[in-house]
Design brief:
By secondary structure, this protein is α/β, with parallel strands linked by helices. It has 15 helices and 13 strands. The strands form three sheets. The chain has a seven-stranded mixed sheet, with helices on both faces. It has a four-stranded antiparallel sheet with strand order 9-10-13-12.
């Protein structure tokens, strides 16, 4: 048996790191994954991961073949060129940008030059690069509708970009509060660069912004000279079907105020790690903001995996570059699961229970208010004693202060397991209420 060596006297102090890497916020996702890992028999109403019921490894091989055939027939590439496209370092801005442009035009009514699209390693990289480009000096700040996706606040902290919260309000963003926050920041000598918002079934609140509010937000962005960072992972999954969809902010954008951030994690599969930014704002010497983001990307990930892009490209080609058509089965599952979740809450928690929840019009998430403080420790008890997982809402406020709210997600649980998961959740709530009585 050997004794571990003591740290060398001359070794650098590993505590002397950027403060953000020790920020509890950056540990939130790891914490939730660790709880799930410790309790593998727990049903998850926590994960926002997509439904896995239709995953098939053969789909990867078929999509690769479809994309390779596309390279041969549509672009006239030789076998050697096809191999090089997939297996060599690739173009920093991506190789499926034209297919993404076709998909955006088909599904979203967004018509944009393919050269204004940067393909990234997941949407998180697109977000990070955009924030990196916008953060110039200590005066710059980001506005974000609160509560906010953990990934945006964590990325901003890594970049020393302060995040100023904006009230969500009933319509997805409180425009009066937004205007006040912009005015206050400028009065304090700061420069609010952009607003981060998820207009469709936001994470965590599930709220959707009505079209009138979207148009008013765009008008405000023009008046106040700020950008809008529109994150749109859930827009294809309205509870009422395709007819219930609302135009994206980018589709309504006539002044190039919106940087549209997209992901194929919820529509193809997250293992591909393919996202993108539509950044058609003018930059240096007639180029797009996307070109500036690409220069930053070349120093971070060099390029996005061509093989992963080819899988996504093949999937798009199989469905005429329409994710609406590609995700019919998944959309049906999410509608069923969300409907069961909302009906199940109503069946288990009468008005006298002190439990309240919102009723999203689509997406994955429902916010539940309970009559006791919700902490990370109570999640651990729920997983251990009742075998059900959910997410404490305080993580989305970037705070360790417990709230009396939590988030339920319907995406990862099979529709047939929703009732059992809610039975377990109801048992947890009853136990927690009794312990706090």
């Amino acid at each position: 048996m050997t004794t571990p060596e003591a740290p060398h006297q001359d070794a650098p102090d590993s505590r002397a790191l950027h403060p953000a890497v020790g920020d509890p916020l950056l540990s939130s996702m790891n914490f939730l994954n660790e709880v799930a890992g410790r309790h593998p028999d727990a049903l998850s109403l926590a994960a926002g991961t997509p439904h896995e019921g239709f995953y098939d490894v053969e789909d990867i091989h078929r999509a690769l073949r479809v994309y390779c055939d596309h390279l041969r027939t549509a672009t006239g590439r030789t076998e050697e060129q096809v191999r090089r496209t997939l297996l060599q370092y690739g173009r920093t801005k991506g190789i499926i940008h034209e297919l993404i442009a076709r998909q955006l035009a088909t599904d979203e009514g967004i018509h944009v030059d393919p050269e204004a699209i940067l393909v990234t390693t997941g949407c998180q990289e697109a977000l990070f690069l955009t924030l990196r480009a916008l953060r110039r000096d200590d005066r710059d700040v980001l506005l974000a509708v609160n509560p906010a996706y953990i990934g945006v606040t964590g990325a901003a902290r890594l970049l020393d970009l302060p995040v100023h919260p904006v009230a969500e309000g009933r319509d997805g963003v409180d425009l009066r509060d937004l205007a006040d926050r912009v005015a206050k920041a400028r009065a304090d000598g700061l420069d609010p660069r952009a607003l981060y918002v998820v207009p469709d079934y936001a994470n965590p609140s599930g709220l959707r912004m009505p079209e009138a509010a979207r148009r008013a937000l765009l008008d405000l962005a023009v008046r106040e000279d700020i950008l809008i960072l529109e994150d749109n992972p859930y827009g294809l999954f309205p509870l009422g079907g395709d007819a219930d969809r609302v135009p994206t902010l980018k589709a309504l954008d006539t002044h190039r105020r919106v940087v549209h951030l997209g992901s194929f994690s919820k529509t193809v599969f997250p293992g591909a790690r393919i996202g993108y930014a539509v950044a058609d704002q003018p930059a240096h010497e007639g180029s797009y903001l996307a070109d500036a983001l690409a220069r930053a990307k070349s120093m971070v990930t060099v390029n996005t995996s061509p093989i992963a892009q080819a899988v996504v490209g093949g999937r798009l080609l199989e469905h005429g570059c329409s994710l609406v058509r590609a995700t019919r089965r998944e959309a049906d599952v999410y509608r069923e699961s969300l409907g069961r979740l909302l009906d199940g809450l109503a069946a288990r928690f009468p008005a006298s229970s002190g439990v309240r929840w919102n009723t999203p019009a689509g997406g994955f998430f429902v916010v539940v208010e309970v009559p006791f403080d919700v902490t990370d420790e109570s999640l651990e008890r729920s997983a251990r004693d009742h075998r059900v997982l959910w997410t404490p809402l305080h993580h989305f406020y970037g705070s360790a202060v417990p709230l009396r709210c939590l988030r339920l997600s319907c995406s990862a649980v099979d529709p047939g397991d929703v009732d059992e998961a809610l039975d377990r959740f109801a048992a947890f709530v009853a136990a927690a209420r009794q312990a706090n009585a």
